[in-house]
Amino acid sequence: MTKIPQVRNLVTAIPGPKSQAILTRRAEAVSSALGMAMPVIVDRAGGGIIIDVDGNSIIDMGAGIAVVNVGNSADRVVANVQAQVEAFTHTCFMVVPYLGYIEVCEALNRLTPGKHKKKSILLNSGAEALENAVKIARSYTKRQAVVVFEHGYHGRTNLTMSMTAKNMPYKEGFGPFAPEVYRMPMAYPLRWPGGAHACAEQALELVIHKMEKEIGGKNIAAIVIEPIQGEGGFIVPPKGFLPGLSKYATENGIVFIADEVQTGFARTGQMFASEDEGVTPDLIATAKGIAGGLPLAGVTGRAEIMDSVHGGGLGGTYGGSPIACAAALGAIATIEEENLCARAAEIGAIMSSALHAMAKKYSIIGEVRGRGAMQAIELVMPGTLEPNPQALAAIIKFCQGKGVLILSAGTYGNVIRLLPPLVIPENLLHEALDILDQAIGSISS
Ligand SMILES: *Cc1c(COP(=O)(O)O)cnc(C)c1O
């Protein structure tokens, strides 16, 4: 267990003087293009707590954007990384292979949905995993078109930026974008013109119609979708939408790619969110939660697809670094041995009931949604669907002032997303939710 005391405790204002001094250096040394969710400098972190350089203990409701699902510096991750660093730090898997890489691939092949024969490759980031998944799908199908969705987020490289929906801040001024990327309407129940009840059926029909008429099914290499959209605001497609897309893909020789970078590794109460409706992706892209905070990503899928690329066609200097692989084996063991899938479901039930209680009290909450330890509220102008980003900013600021780190999301900048580490003590979770309740109360009159 973490040595970090699991209590919220503020000893200075946020940010304190030591954080402020370092943030001044940050402003001098680091490009101003990088965002910052909370203006403090971290010193140590573990469990559900981040301690800053002034000694403030902050409740972590973001897990580094769903990365430290097993907690910061989790015991098995630390032990494995320490042993690996002493043994060797790098050979390049394509120069001299090592067991850790192979074991992570075996774990991915075992844990991802479907009992068919699977193979994997490892990479450094979520974006790189998506890039490679598309390369593999194009090579396998000998087709070019890639279908993505409104509100989708897939990364910041040229191809994945092109696949990402939102212009500001991800795309503004960064064109030209990659060709042959086609964006389809997303089944977003809250905002579906025909109403939430009709969303699954109408969205599926519309998307299939557009794919047929605007691209042609036989020209589509891949359909790429997040089973629950992350940056887009935790948009949960209604039941039937994902299975319908997957079925269309199969019938038309299209590779169905699940981007489980944010939803993977126990976050939603199952190892992967695709499992919820029994969807078996042809390829699945993973990253964030895979390695307890070390940079690692994977593409896993049907062996015949993964093996269809010519020898030497995939790879990279650092992809599947031995240290990141050691960390991943520690993180995966932690998830399995500590039953973190079940724990994510319990955390989700606590968050969901607290958020629904808030929604009854506060008319700026337009919707509570999510699955497992991935829950969000969408903020609106009372009585309408008009997005309320001003409320979001005020709520986050209030929470930060009380020592609770909460992340935002959403195309309209009006979604509060909760992604606590799955090892957060329950009292801290309740405390953070109470403070969120006070924050929303403070701006609702
Ligand atoms: C974060 C994220 C990515 C990109 O991952 P990076 O490691 O930041 O490149 C891709 N897809 C989804 C769904 C993500 O949440």
From TrEMBL:
Family the UniProt entry places it in: Belongs to the class-III pyridoxal-phosphate-dependent aminotransferase family.
List the CDD domains hit by this protein, alphabetically. Answer: OAT_like
Q: Name one GO biological process term.
A: gamma-aminobutyric acid metabolic process
The record ties this protein, via Gene3D superfamilies, to: Aspartate Aminotransferase, domain 1 (3.90.1150.10), Type I PLP-dependent aspartate aminotransferase-like (Major domain) (3.40.640.10)
Keyword field contains Transferase: yes
Sorted keywords for this record are: Aminotransferase, Pyridoxal phosphate, Transferase
The Gene Ontology terms for molecular function here are: 4-aminobutyrate:2-oxoglutarate transaminase activity; identical protein binding; pyridoxal phosphate binding
Name of the protein described by the UniProt record? Unannotated protein
Q: Which coenzymes or cofactors are required? A: pyridoxal 5'-phosphate
Query: Does the keyword Transferase feature in the UniProt annotation?
Result: yes
**Organism expressing this protein natively:** freshwater metagenome
Q: Which residues cross the membrane?
A: none
